[in-house]
Amino acid sequence: MHRVFVCFSRMFDLGQFDSLASEISPCLMDKMMSPVQLSADTSQRILAFVILMTLSVMATHGFGLWLFSALLPRMKESLELGYDQVALITASVPFTYMLFCLLSSLLIPLLGSARVTLLSVAGSGLCMLAVVGSTQVWQVALLLILISSCAGLHWMSMVELASRVVPVHSRNRALGLIAGGSAVGICVNGVLISPLFNGWVWQELWLLGAAITLILASALWGLFFSNPGLTGSLTAAVVPAGRLKESVSVWDALKLCFSHRVARTACLLSALIGIMTAPYMTYLNVYLSDELGYASVLVSTTWNLAGLGGLFGGIGLGWLADRRGGAVAIRFSLLLFLAGAFILAFEPRAWLVPLAGITYGVMYFPFWGLIVGKFSRFFEPRVSLHLVSLSLVSFSSFAAAGNWVGGYLYQLTGSLTVLYGMIVGVALVTLLLSLTLPKAEKAEDHHGSHRL
Questions:
Q1: CATH topology for 47-446?
Q2: pTM of the predicted model over 0.85
Q3: Distances in Å between the alpha carbon of 161 and those of 100, 120, 291?
Q4: Residue 125 CB: number of other CB atoms within 10 A?
Q5: I need a surface site. Which of 160, 169, 275, 277 has the fewest CB within 10 A?
Q6: Confidence bin at 23 (pLDDT 50/70/90)
Q7: Cβ count within 10 A of residue 329
């Protein structure tokens, strides 16, 4: 317990945090390629950084991107939403996420990772607050699009920070935990739609999410900026504005997506995961409550277990990836997801449905940490940042398509069983594609050989 208190006290020791980045960054290509013995002080500050980033992902992704899906049955009645409108909204959100992932390649060098992180969390909280007062469908749609843009900026700035702070030998575990922040938000969403909050209207639940997000933004402000000594690598622009054209080479990274085996496979995996996971959770509440007639207790339990699965899955798969390789961890998680999708499509019994939530969480949330870890072993940090951005573009494009197809199929057939059957087929193809990922043992030999 004492170490926990020391850890959090270090997190707010602002004068030392800047030295952490300068202390860690030079080690990326040499010293940190092999497990090194870091000082207890440095280890505590790295742990504090990971905890704070996990909480910020919880706010921008767990609340920002998933609260609408959790509250969809309530909001649909209040706002008189049709499923064609739901399909259009949920398809627009990933496109905005994709666009701002690309724009982050310009904003992060100009403003700095910490500033972009802070602005994205604060912006997400303010947009959630504005949802509370929305009475028209177009208002909610616009705010959800803005929230997704904040989430895209936040993820990319967090990846850039983590690549400079977290050592390579423990990066899979750290990124797995950070990516699990979305799972924490999902878990909280599950509590919000449980009978415990039955008396709350959806506006009050959005207000609660906004309050938590804005409190976290205040904590970030304190960590990054309240100490006058914090003016170094975390808050300053990464490159001078005059050299921006030299440092940003998205097109070169795009060429790697066609020519390099790891980059190409990762982008294809991201696309397939987008088309199967986005409608999986978007229509889960509707499927369980409206079509199958299950009680709200089962629905909220499934969401809670999806969150817990993502949190513990991030830690477990990160541990597995650090020991057996990211490819092994990705294949194992995809196999679990395939089993969960099969349950929803063909055996949606009450006692099996929660397993579908667990398997979703174990696969989806840690995947993004594993992909970032995979890139970091093959490419230098600047290249990795661009490739992560492009993989999210692939994901977002196909996630939008998946959500649209889900709404269209429901309108056409009156049932979501067809949709979940389609997801089973895509999951099988994705699992087969993951077999082409190279083993992690070969990765470190190529690290740093691909630079923009």
A1: Growth Hormone; Chain: A; (1.20.1250)
A2: no
A3: 17, 14, 44
A4: 26
A5: 169
A6: very low
A7: 28
